[in-house]
Amino acid sequence: MNVLDSLRYFFQPPPRPSRPYHGLRERSVQCIGPHGLHRMAYTEWGDPANRRVLVCVHGLTRNGRDFDFLAQALAGHYRVVCPDVVGRGRSDWLGMKSDYGFPLYVSDMITLLARLDADTVHWVGTSMGGIIGMLIASQPHTPISRLVLNDVGPLITAVSLQRIGEYVGRAPLFASMAEAEQWIRTVGAPFGALTDAQWHHLTRYSVRPVDGGFSLLCDPAIGDVFRASSIDADVDLWSVYQAIRCPTLAIRGADSDLLERATHERMSLEGPRARTAEIPGVGHAPMLMEATQIALVRDFLRAE
């Protein structure tokens, strides 16, 4: 693949909307952590004056552009906001790497909601984004009034954490976009049978040009912090989940190693008593790009 071929990943338009919308806006908000200020980028879709706000938050090494397909499908009804959690995408990388963690991520999201002037929001969270959503939704006076947990729940298996720990923060320098896409297809195999256009989309927004090739848009130090935590035991968040009161949809990839089927079934009986759905042929995690997955989320969010 030559340079011109590689550039097509960066200049091809985003997926075509299925209905009129107010365009894509790239913005950022300044946040503060224990060791200073940092900028969190976000992508916004739909009418900026719409009081119906949907926040979509990605997984550990991903970014907000994962939700482009979902956002365009829902932009006629919502103002859709898709942040890049700090250290990913267009957001700043932290100087003090030990600050990467859920206390800062939750704080940043509350700052974002203040910027949006949103008293209540609907929330879609994939993996890490779902944990952030659970932590916020479990709080008294939470702004989250409807919650979608995408392949994550109150018990996170050690097996999945160990698998993630093998690759997070260890992406190589890619000689070409084709090489980058092959790596993303390999690591992202549990996402399921995505189309070539969808893999191109993920690749385009996952890497950036650097001297000698292309690198992943994710601070490698996130992997170091992740592996420094104990990953030899399951993570139990049942007390958090049981404090959630808003309507909840729990989606599971049928082959997921992070959200076990027994946990998924128990989620329908405790706490918010989530509505549950399982996506066949997918592991961790459904990418919410395919039409039936988008419809599943849309129908739940709008069933008020």
How are the SSEs placed, and which strands pair?
Blueprint (H helix, E strand, L loop, with lengths): L2 H9 L12 E10 L2 E10 L7 E5 L10 H7 L4 E5 L18 H15 L4 E6 L1 H10 L6 E7 L4 E2 L1 H10 L9 H11 L8 H9 L2 E4 L2 E4 L4 H8 L6 E2 L1 H5 L5 E6 L7 H7 L7 E5 L11 H11 L3
Parallel strand pairs: 3-4, 3-5, 5-6, 6-11, 11-12
Antiparallel strand pairs: 1-2, 2-4, 7-10, 8-9
Helix pairs in contact: 6-7
Task: Write structural notes for this entry.
There is one protein chain. The chain has 304 residues and is α/β, with parallel strands linked by helices. It has a single domain (3-301), classed as Rossmann fold (3-Layer(aba) Sandwich). 34% of the residues lie in helices and 22% in strands. The chain has an 8-stranded mixed β-sheet with strand order 1-2-4-3-5-6-11-12, sandwiched between helices. The chain has a two-stranded antiparallel sheet with strand order 7-10. A two-stranded antiparallel sheet has the order 8-9. A hairpin with a 2-residue loop joins strand 1 (24-33) and strand 2. Helix 6 crosses helix 7 (196-204).
User: How much beta, percentage-wise?
Assistant: 15-25%
Distance from first to last alpha carbon: 49 Å
Question: Fraction of residues in helices?
Answer: 25-40%
Coarse shape:
globular
CATH architecture: 3-Layer(aba) Sandwich
What is the overall number of helices? 11
Average residue pLDDT: 93
Could you name the CATH topology? Rossmann fold
**Domains counted in the coordinates: how many?**
1
Series of secondary-structure elements, N-terminal to C-terminal:
HEEEHEHEHEEHHHEEHEHEHEH
Q: Report Rg.
A: 18 Å
Low-pLDDT stretches: 1-5
